[in-house]
Amino acid sequence: MEHKSISTLLKLYVRLIGIVLILSGLILAVGGGFLISYGGSFYYLPMGIALFLSGVSIFTLRSWGVVLFALAYIATVAWALWEVGLDFWPLVPRLVALTGFAALVAFAYPSIMKYRKGEKSYWGGYVLGILLLASLGVVFFQSLQTHYGYLATEKPVRKTVSNDDAPKDWQQYSNTTKGTRFSGAEQITPDNIDKLKTAWTFRTGDIPENSGAGPEDQNTPLFIDNTLFVCTPFNKVIAIEPETGKQLWKYDPKITTPNWQRCRGLAYYTPVATEINQADLANAPTMDQEKELAAPNEFTQTNVTASSDKANACGARIFMNTTDDRLVALDPATGKLCEDFGDKGVVDLKLNMGDIPPGYHGPTAPPTVAGEVVVVAGRVADNYSTGEPSGVVRAYSVHDGHLVWAWDPGNPETKTTPADGKMYTRGSVNVWATMAYDPKLDLIYAPTGNATPDFWAGERTKYDDEFNSSIVAIEAKTGKIRWKYQTVHHDLWDYDLPSQPLLYDIPDGKGGTVPALLQTAKSGEIFMLNRETGKPLAEVVEKPVTQGNVEGERYSKTQPFSVGMPSVGNQTLKESDMWGATPFDQLWCRIEFASMDYNGLFTPPGMNKTLQWPGSLGGMNWGSVSVDPTTDYMFINDMRIGLVNWMIPRKDISPNASGIEMGVVPQSGTPFGAMRLRFMSPIGVPCQAPPYGTMRAIDLKTRQVVWKVPVGTVEDTGIMGIPMHLPAPVGMPTLGGSLSTKSGLLFFAGTQDFYLRAYDSHTGKEVWKYRLPVGSQGTPITFISPKNGKQYIVLTASGARQSPARGDYVMAWELGQ
């Protein structure tokens, strides 16, 4: 057959398309075969074969390849609609790349026909190609729109709040000790927020590096007596004039911590604010008595003693715990150490803790002031070994720093200092999150972590299993346990409780209220308890869960599911939920999913590759919740990244395994180490469909979600970590807390893009955003200056988690004219 000539350039174009289709077909066919072998979808193998044959035909300039491709494309559209319906983001990897191929094939069609038949015009191919490209333009436009969740259509009925919620100082981590993150300030409203502008910017000089386990700025400032206080990742406390951003003083403890440096907040005590008389502590041991109880040995250190030099005695004081285990009391007016506290202003938290290798223990959450005591706990390095430093919770006198009581979760018989010079129990359950305190009930609420390590628990003690992943109510005066409630039994997933509980009085429908505690969890569950008794107010059901088969491990047959409250991002995944930027990485994720052990929430780690969803980050994390008492709305942000793990026999663990972030964690002292990997595609995209982070409002009266929206775009992140510079509201993992105001605004900055956002808290609509110099992991606060009467919003911003863009900013906003 005689062929008509076409230009060399057109022939090259057609054959390049053929090569692209051949290679794409091979990848999909081979991958599709693997997927079928794991019991997965049958789509990819025949589609790959079709693309391969189509590519061969087009490469040889035969028109039947175009027809075959068209049939394969139509079949793909039908399959995609059958599998995920009209859900935008799940359709993207199934159709966008193939639509791009279709446009290229359509443009090649006239050249192929001219080569085969010699006719002059097959303009229909060009028209179809243009239409297909136009459809991709529509997809691009739609990618900039929101495709998840919903806004509220009606404004809630608001109620009057008490004077306790009036705009005063921001004296504690969450404004109050109750975890509310609410302010009664209402100068800045949804109607005038477009006039919000920067008032000043301050640089701390501490720029955290982006090393995974290094320093991070996760600070929530305090505002007290017309002074702003911030704490840098290196525990430097800086006092700032709130109207100008001028530094008043700086305190530098010169920490020696080698990793995980962060200072999430400070605590404040003033004698006027206390509700407990100091006489109630009369029976507590004096510091001299502590010294007698703690006979020195190779593991103990000399007890601190109150300084006799009262040159800088303080009334009010700011407390900070450093990540190298010191409790510091500072004079808010000068930044000098309160020399009437501890040893010239410092209590050594290493006392009776035994050997603490650098970086293995240190508080990252702020202390909790509870009446006349300041309560501290600490983070313990996860997954290095058994027998790590103790998770003891200790209460010190706010006045002189002597130990009032101690709760040792590994030995509840220890009430203060261990007898006979012994140590607090090593490797016990710890409390790394921020605690809450109810002054009326005089109860501290401690959200607990796990006895180390996280993924092997065959050697945990009865006390470990009793207290892990629990809310523990402790009497502030005595340290006595009032009640406890467990959210995960025999935790094998690192589902420790990460967030500060919310203490809130919920309407009972009869004109009164019920004292409630709301606890968010990494598992995506939300528990609502009566904070007086620890009994559930929202129904919790014990459900059977998957059992494992790792030798020597034991498993809980059931786990608690808080069915009376909405769950967040912990639905059971299906293969069709797998995602990717292209059909190729989506196929990779589908193969991974199909090849792993997974049976929903609480699938235990095993010797085979196992999927944990939600992963060990959550769910919900340390940012905690905020609340609006005028509407009874609670606001929750979350992240959604799965974890892949499997157990590794001890003999196969490298002595260099560090356990920092992802990779092999040694879990020394147990029969197994473990591998941990984020469930992401080879190009760095999470394997499940968006969103990866959301914000939602839950009405605590009805316990229903009122609105929910994705939070964050890919503007400052993207494929292979390369910023895409597109404001596509995919919804990115969140880390940080929110601020709710009486005027109906919700502020949030803990996204992967560099913005402080404000939402209408009644509807969920984004009403304002401000471009930050770098991302933020901080929680914004607000206050009204007594000097000029203006309301300010303040936020620290030193870099989003995992972002290489770093800074050292403290920023303030005010209303312009």
TrEMBL record:
Per the UniProt entry, the Enzyme Commission number(s) are 1.1.-.-
Which InterPro entries does this chain map to? PQQ_b-propeller_rpt, PQQ_mDH, PQQ_rpt_dom, Quinoprotein_ADH-like_sf
Q: Does the keyword Flavoprotein apply?
A: no
Q: Which Pfam families match?
A: PQQ (PF01011)
Membrane-spanning intervals of the chain? 12-36, 42-59, 66-82, 88-109, 121-141
What UniProt keywords are attached to this protein's entry? Membrane, Oxidoreductase, Transmembrane, Transmembrane helix
Q: Which PANTHER family match?
A: QUINOPROTEIN ALCOHOL DEHYDROGENASE (CYTOCHROME C), QUINOPROTEIN GLUCOSE DEHYDROGENASE
- Protein name as it appears in the record: Membrane-bound PQQ-dependent dehydrogenase, glucose/quinate/shikimate family
Which organism was this protein described from?
Answer: Entomomonas moraniae
